């Protein structure tokens, strides 16, 4: 088997596992694809390949989560629809908006998120028993649209943002929050694919084996997340935020 295919499969499996368990699989997969795929390949097909594979892994993980964890479907479904529309709009605005200015803003937001999560030891550790209020329902719709737009426009950290919103503002535990975030992530991935596929930005010879590896990683990652429980996800969430902070901090530093 070609060494590039082996590296592709290992990357896809690792990214799918990481994304399903704690999120942030794109941090591993996207840089790896730029090194594994032919150097002559343009950026758009690489992003298309990544998005298709990520979609397969996310769908797999989402299916595993929602089969065993109760999620707020009444709020999630309309929020997912708004996220889909907002994500597609964001993807179409990438060429016109100065995305680089989002990195310092996201850096500050993520620092605040990790400090808040660390300081609140019981955050996301208690299973919510009550139904959402009308105010929370509205906030969920707004959050889905806002984060969906961010995902289409920029992307990194979307899963972490969604999980934090569900834990902080809806008082869900990390398992329910992660499952809910995955549902919305699926729709934002579909929104991106509805742009990449019709425009021919996916090289299927690379996308299909990567997607298969992502799918397998998603199965293993979702199993580990549910087996590890809320404490595992809280630790993984903070670790992922620290990685994101390091990446965004380095990117911002290099612009000066």
From TrEMBL:
UniProt feature coiled coil, ranges: none
Signal peptide range in chain numbering: none
GO cellular component: plasma membrane
Subcellular location: Cell membrane
Membrane-spanning ranges: 75-94, 101-119, 139-167, 203-225, 232-250
Topology relative to the membrane: Multi-pass membrane protein
Chief localisation class: membrane
One Pfam family hit: TauE
UniProt entry keywords in alphabetical sequence: Cell membrane, Membrane, Transmembrane, Transmembrane helix, Transport
Annotated PANTHER family: MEMBRANE TRANSPORTER PROTEIN YFCA-RELATED, TRANSMEMBRANE PROTEIN YFCA
Similarity annotation: Belongs to the 4-toluene sulfonate uptake permease (TSUP) (TC 2.A.102) family.
Name listed for the protein in its UniProt record: Probable membrane transporter protein
Gene source species: Neisseria zoodegmatis
Gene giving rise to this polypeptide: yfcA_1
């Amino acid at each position: 088997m070609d060494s590039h295919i082996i590296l592709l499969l290992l990357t896809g499996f690792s990214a799918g596992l990481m994304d399903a368990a704690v999120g942030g699989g794109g941090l591993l997969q996207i840089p790896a694809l730029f090194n594994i795929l032919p150097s002559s390949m343009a950026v758009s097909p690489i992003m298309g390949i990544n998005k298709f594979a990520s979609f397969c892994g996310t769908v797999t993980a989402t299916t595993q989560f929602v089969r065993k964890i109760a999620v707020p479907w009444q709020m999630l479904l309309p929020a997912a629809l708004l996220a889909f529309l907002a994500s597609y709009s964001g993807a179409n605005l990438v060429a016109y908006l100065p995305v680089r200015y989002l990195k310092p803003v996201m850096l500050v937001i993520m620092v605040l998120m990790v400090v808040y999560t660390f300081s609140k030891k019981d955050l996301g550790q208690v299973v919510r028993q009550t139904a959402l209020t009308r105010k929370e329902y509205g906030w969920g719709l707004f959050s889905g649209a806002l984060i969906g737009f961010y995902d289409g426009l920029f992307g990194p950290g979307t899963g972490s943002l969604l999980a934090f919103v569900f834990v902080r503002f809806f008082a869900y535990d990390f398992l329910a929050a992660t499952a809910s975030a995955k549902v919305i992530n699926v729709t934002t991935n579909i929104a991106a694919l509805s742009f990449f596929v019709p425009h021919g930005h996916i090289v299927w010879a690379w996308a299909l084996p990567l997607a298969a590896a992502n799918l397998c990683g998603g199965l293993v990652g979702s199993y580990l997340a549910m087996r590890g429980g809320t404490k595992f996800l809280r630790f993984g969430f903070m670790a992922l935020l620290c990685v994101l902070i390091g990446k965004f901090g380095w990117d911002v530093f290099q612009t000066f």
